[in-house]
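Complex 414.
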Amino acid sequence: MIINNPKGTQDFLPPLSTQKSYLENTFRKIAQLYGFEEIVTPTFEHTELFLRSTGLTTDIVTKQMYTFVDKGNRNLALRPEGTPGVVRAVLQYNLKLPIRLFYIGPMFRYERPQKGRYREFYQLGVEIIGEGQPEAELELIDLAMRYFRELKLEAVVTKINSVGCKVCRPQFRNSLKGFLTDNLSKICEDCKVRAEQNPLRVFDCKEDTCQAIYQSAPKITDHLCYECQKHFQTVLEGLSKRKLPFELDKSLVRGLDYYTRTTFEFVPTGASELGSKDSIGGGGRYDNLVKDFGGPQAPAIGFALGLERILLCLPKPERWRPLVFIISLDEKADTEAEGLVHKLRDADIPALKSSQVKTLRAGLGLADTLYCKYVIIIGGDELQKKVYTVKNLVDRSQVEVAQDKLIEYLKATL
Ligand code: AMP
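Predicted structure with adenosine monophosphate bound:
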């Protein structure tokens, strides 16, 4: 019996696995350009960590967390997101602030699987801990946009909002609660619970009827305190100055409890396999989380991108590999092929040779199976003329290349 992968998980087979590595390596490169260093934290943590950060009333904690008790009776959870583990590690090891960290790794949420929504998925995230100025928002959004540009994913807009702070949010919460009480008979059952426990979360509701009602609900953006308003205004002006495209979205509250002030999401605007409502990433400020965890008063901000969702927005990767396959047609040519395969690898050109191949036909068949882009054929004729026959398996064209010009030729074409 063949056992399949569990529901909601994904196998990354080649060439998708190669595209995944490319996305990760490019993210590493860009994050380092902005002064971030990589942090790797465990994929599971004490459940309590997420209860105290992501939040007791969030969908992630109440419905989606993979929790278990281990053999030592510890309550553990597969991490549903990266920020709590990073903040924990910063405090546990007393790392100096401010600090810029990035992470890449799998996250786990028990969600209804669909395109772009999985139970195990990869996030690429950054955190700046210990910087409260609007400059931090601009750095992060600029970084994300540079990353998307590098991936040739040009059409991405930043939706942005401010959810206020400990000063202005409680007042707003009350006025929103009043509005929801007045409309209680018209909203869905989930929103009735949200109205009671965490009213701001109603804006995340997927029901069209609820959304129509919330059009006329009070919006936090219109009720910010002076400090939050000034901060948000500076962020928006900075985005305009840097020519970073954004849309103000007063309903953008995002699903986590610890957000303060700026929240944002990256939404692709071009045609793609991704649903039109899905974001490819999101983040925000969390100015109180470090303190709530027992650390110093250190404002912070971060975002996480969904790797699978970015993949859905990019063209499908090519199956052909930039790999050269050498076929030798007799024993003398075999010796030449043996030397050549190492010479190519020394020149950073991926190359393979097989001594099992007895005929040209069999060799070409094997090269096709291995998705090699180029085949180099060496026989008596080639040895005498000091050339190699180079066949391009993608367009099936064939040329003779002088032996001493081969590396140059392959470097220019691979
Ligand atoms: P969040 O951590 O909920 O703020 O999500 C940040 C990003 O992670 C989203 O914009 C998605 O790109 C990605 N993401 C969140 N949940 C999932 C999921 N279940 N499957 C795939 N990607 C996800």
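The chain is about 35% helix and 20% strand.
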